[in-house]
Each structure stands twice: as structure tokens, then as C-alpha cells.
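Reminder to self: keep the SMILES exactly as supplied, no canonicalising. Ligand is pyridoxal-5'-phosphate.
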Amino acid sequence: MSDRGKPSPDPATVAAAFGVAEDMAYGAVAPPLYMSSTYEFAGYDQPRLYDYGRGGNPTRDLLAEALAKLEGGASAVITSSGMAALDLLVSRLGPDDLILAPHDCYGGTMRLLKARADRGHCSVRFVDQSDDAAFAAGLEEVPALVLIETPSNPLMRVVDIAPLAAKAKQAGAAVAVDNTFLSPAIQRPISLGADYVVHSTTKYLNGHSDVIGGAIIAADPDGAQDLRQWANIVGSAGAPFDAWLTLRGLRTLFARMQVQQSNAMAVATWLEQHPAVSKVHYPGLLTHPGHAIASRQQDGFGAMLSFELTGGVDAVRRFIDHVKFFTLAESLGGVESLVAHPATMTHADMGDEARAVAGINDSLLRLSIGLEAEQDLIAGLECGLAACDLGGMQGG
Ligand SMILES: *Cc1c(COP(=O)(O)O)cnc(C)c1O
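C-alpha cells returned for the bound complex:
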């Protein structure tokens, strides 16, 4: 079908329909899944568009194109995990290159950067990127790459991408933003000056907790070409079936995000007035220090939040034993609601000291809000909170 005269589609339309009804062989509406690892040459010295699956696969490329469009980039590389996507950027650097990363970045990212630096593959410096002086001092060391993550995990701290990216570029650094927590339905870092956007597609993009995957989207075609080559050299490509599932999940991204963040807002507002809760971290709340930046930089406040219990670790244990409709598990971004205790789960590897510096205490719980009915989520949380203080206090 000719695209001539077709209006430029809204991102929600891209997510729902990119690559639909383009099958030449049978007119299949859902894009076919190509599992083949290798492709027949047309003849002597005549490779076709695809020759070998490590370098390229039609199903994987369709997902890459859809993500590049949604993030406003030139092209994307699909990897076997979010960590593989980050490592694709990191492993391209040399021993003299410095990475400036947030002090409260994703635990796995911190572990990766430290492991690479320990082996002399690059060097890394962690700074509080919301502290202008600390960030400026970091830039004085002339980093090759500045990595930004906002909102942060698990405290949902928000940093202002545009000025950080502008300063980083002025200092000669490339800028990568991990956009996993919001997805392009809510935040588009390339439009704010980023050179690269990194995703764990495991989370919101796939959205159904049944794939581990990652992606990097590059703003300019040269950067994209370079990454594709590097991905082929090191062999970090994701599996075609995973790409197919992720594209299937992506179809409903905008609809899921709308409902999940509306549920999150309701849950955060309800938690904030509960006597068993001492603090709620959600950028949608007026009391959140990042609220103004988030309102400006994001198209919504996302569906992740964390909160602290007044009763300490004992309350955490009772809450986890009694909460309903939330599953105790790591990860996030799926259609089902999850609860995690960062100190003993996602952030256990960080060590007590680094956790204290990042402000992650033992009373903190993180919620990934799903698609369940709002009243059930609140009732389920009430079951947990009511049990926090069995000695008398009846919560909320
Ligand atoms: C989960 C996550 C990653 C790592 O992705 P995997 O798919 O688990 O390898 C990186 N960054 C953030 C912010 C994440 O939440």
C-alpha cells in the first residue's frame, strides 16, 4: 500500500500499528516471525538484505525501527538484555575514557560500570547529578560519556535532562539516557538533547514480564551504524522470538501506561495520608522535590513509586506477609503489580554504605503498579498496612 498522502502518525499509532499488514507473501496482518539464523544468497557474490542472523533479522529490525520512531532517533539496536544494551555503549569506550554516571543509578548498571572499570576497560565516576557543582566537577575531568537515569530507582529522584545534556555536550561528552522507567510514551530524551537512549525492554516496552531484552536508540545515523557494527562484532543481539513478543507488547504501550500511571497516582495519594507510611516517593505528588521538572519534562508521572513505613524492618516483614494483589518480586513495568524491598532484593549488592549514601533505608518498599482495578490495589495495600502495627494502630 502506498504511504503517499498518509498523515504523519501519532506515536500511539506507531506503537499500535507499525509494520502491520506489510507481509508480501500472504498479507498477514500481524508481522511474521522470522526464526532463520541464515539467509540464502541470490547467487555468486550476491548477498540479499539479510545474510546472517547475528548481524540482522527482519523481526528484530522491525522492533528496532518502531523503537527508533517512538524515541525520535535515527535507528536502534536490539540486544539480549538491558545490561547488554548498556554494555554495548560501555565496551565501545577505551581505557582512557571516563564515564560520568549517577550515584543512584540502577544497581546492575553500577555493578557493570565498576566491573568494567576494575578491569581497566574504562574509568567511571559516580556523582549526584542533581548537584550542579558535583556535576560540573565531573565534567572538568572530560568524560567521554555521561549517563543519565531519571526518574531514579528506587527513590524516583528526577533530574533535568536538557541542561545536563547541554553542559555534557559542551564538555565534549556523548550523552546517554536510560529511559526504562518511563518509556517513550512518557519521556523522549533525544528531544531533550540525548545522543543515545537505553532501554531494558524487559520492563514497560514488552510490559508482560515474559521477555528479557534491551535496546539502544541513537539520535544520529552515524552513531546508529557504529552501534550496529559493534553489536555484530560482540554478538549482543536479542533473539527473534523475544523481538516478536516485545513488538506484540509494544502495541498496547500507550494504553497500558495511561491506566498504570493513573493507578499509581491514586495509590500514591492514598499512601501519603496513611499513618503507617512515613514518606511516599512519587513525582506526581506536589510534595515530591522533582515534581516541577517532571511536569515539564514528562508527559505523565509513570507507574513506579516507593514509600517508607513508620514501623521499620518489622513493619516491612509484616506488610510483605499480608499485602494482597502485589507479588513480592524484582523487576517492574508489567501488567501485574509487584512489590520489592530494595535493601534485601534489587539493591542488596550495593552494600550498606553505598545504600546509605543513596538514601535507601531498610524501611523502603518499591511498587510497580499494574493494570489491576485501582480499588483492589488500595484494598490489597491496606491488608499489608493494617498488619504493620498489630500492637494497636489501625491504619487509615
Ligand atoms: C532492569 C533495568 C536495567 C537492566 O535491564 P535487564 O533487561 O534486566 O538486563 C537497566 N536499567 C534500568 C533502569 C532497569 O530498570
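Points to follow up:
Residues 81-83, 106, 108-109, 149, 153, 178, 180-181, 200, 202-203, 212, 214 surround pyridoxal-5'-phosphate (CB under 6 Å).
The chain has 13 helices and twelve strands.
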